[in-house]
Amino acid sequence: MSTTSAPSGSAGITLGRRDRGVHAREVLSDADAVLAALDPEQREAATALSGPVCILAGAGTGKTRAITHRIAYGVHAGVYVPQHVLAVTFTARAAGELRSRLRDLAVAGVQARTFHAAALRQLGYFWPRVIGGAPPAILEHKAGLVADAATRLRLGVDRAAVRDLSAEIEWAKVGLLTPETYASAGVRAGRGEPGGLDVLTVARLMEVYEQVKTERGVIDFEDVLLLVAGIIEENAEVAAAVRAQYRHFVVDEYQDVSTLQQRVLDLWLGDRDDVCVVGDPSQTIYSFAGASPEHLLGFPRRFPTARVVRLVRDYRSTPQVVALANGLLTRAGRAASAAAAGLELVAQGESGPEPTLTVHPDDVAEAAGVAERIRGLLSAGVRASGIAVLFRTNAQSEPLEQALADAGIPYLVRGGVRFFARKEVRDAILLLRGAARASTGEETLGDEVRGVLATAGWTAEAPASGGAVRDRWESLAALAALADELAEKRQGARLADLVAELDERAAAQHAPTVEGVTLASLHAAKGLEWDAVFLVGLSEGLMPIALAEGWAAVEEERRLLYVGITRARRHLHLSWARARTPGGRAGRSPSRFLDGLIGDPVERRRGTGAAEGERRRGRRSTLPTRCRVCTGTLDSAAERKVGRCGSCPPDYDEELFENLRGWRSRVAAAAKLPAYCVFTDATLVAIAETVPRDEAALAALPGVGPAKLSRYGQEVLEVLGGSVAPGRAGEA
Ligand code: ATP
Ligand code: MG
Asked: Does the beta carbon of 573 sit less than 6 angstroms from any atom of ligand 1?
């Protein structure tokens, strides 16, 4: 995602770009060249190879660059053994970014992970040795168990309350609170009445939740870190082993560390102080989930010998983008601007286009407007992988996916996240491995790979639908593109070479770049950058989100928008829509953050996209508009499809759903079709959630057209009626 940038103060050395994929890359492989690519302050941080280091700086000032170069300098200068370095950050994408940058600096063997992934790995290693057996399974969602715990306590809570209570338990656990300490801490932190319950009842619920979890033999997300902390604390041998393995620690995005993560970091460190933390208080975006910038701001106090480095030069963005970012923070309230004091960004880059603000009549028109602009950028030579559309909630993704698909623009939603762990990727590699043995090498590598992928149901044409289907398609398209790149790079490369390349990449967790526009939430975008960024949905209720009540919560939303703005290198387009749906009530007003920030908006009227929108709206008019669980308004078509909002947990019967999947596998196998051609996952979920009683009810579900109804209707109803035995075809 990053472009080649001419490093300041270096003569003709350029960093490799990972979007070049397997193309030849220039890498900085000697210590002096690594340092030459930094400015004096960054160099100061990079050459402080031991002892505590703290980099406090704004967005785009090269914090991540400073730490990756610091690691590279340490390794190339022979001071660090790569295997002894652990770099942690907060999102999977940001960890991917760290790994890519380290690769570009010819550093191999350094662990760069999220806190969670690093802890999970240690748990997987130590659990069998210390406790015996495999570590317990990890619970994907707390809701089910929280609901069970509530039932045991005879608390009448609805699903919305269960969701709030799950979040509250999470908040308590990342703050290292126990049922005993929660109540007073909750009052002090002004947590109010989560799920409508008083704090003492919540504390009781926490206790029972933990009991239920133990009885079921599962652990939750926070337990992974809590257990690692516990094992290191209680077992001197484990502590010694962990500390012998990891000697130098680097934490990126440290402003968002939670008390629990800090605890684990402290235990990793022991009584040593070889830790380099990097952060920007103005980008704290998880404090409502229990993170706190106090760890960052208090670091120099905790380590009085710490070398503190401040960076103010913004290398990422044009002066126009930087002015907007600074303007947003200047308008921040008291404490926020105090935290940001002294961190005003100074743009280094060339002048660029003015950021724009556009108002659209509705979300569909807004999405179409974004697609239109993207088309313009693409024809002006901006790469699709250099463009991102960022939004506040995942529910906003659907109209955008639809608009991009309609415009024939490739996009990805899960970009770069655990590519090699995806089922479709693992399956495809298995197929390619098999095919490599039988390969005669008569076709071009690209054709051969596309042929193999076709046996897995992949087509050269992107599917019309979005969501998981689209994600799967993009993953396989990336494999095909990688084959083309390899063939271009290495004359006569064969399928076996591609398989070897894939194995090597899987080991290094180096996902191929998918040439598509990134759709992501603002939270998932932190630490990343693109040439062009679209920030959509900038209206009150979405930004700040309606849930953000009170000054502190609203300021966190402001920081989130700041993160969004500062992702852009050059092109920045802001927009909002007056109504949610075409023809709907135009009740929305612009985000308060836009006030005085940017000139008057360009007002768009319904254009050519309107007919399309009306058509789709008409088709959807039979769908519910309210969530059947929490009765909240359903914002996206995807939500209306299942009659439930994205934040409420699915409430279908697991066994019924598995039966449906089993049935689908058998049908697909018999017809030699990919499973999603029978019914998409979304449709299957809709069937399981609504349990239609007859063909008419089934036909009302989107994704069940007349052809599918006549082909599969009767069978589906039989599965729902329980008369077809559950399938064992096993789609994992
Ligand atoms: P964020 O707060 O968003 O995580 P950051 O402070 O980590 O930002 P980086 O991502 O490291 O910033 O850097 C922003 C961009 O500026 C990157 O493309 C980086 O390569 C470039 N950059 C940073 N420092 C320099 C430099 N000294 N010379 C040239 N380019 C630089
Ligand atoms: Mg960074």
From this structure: no
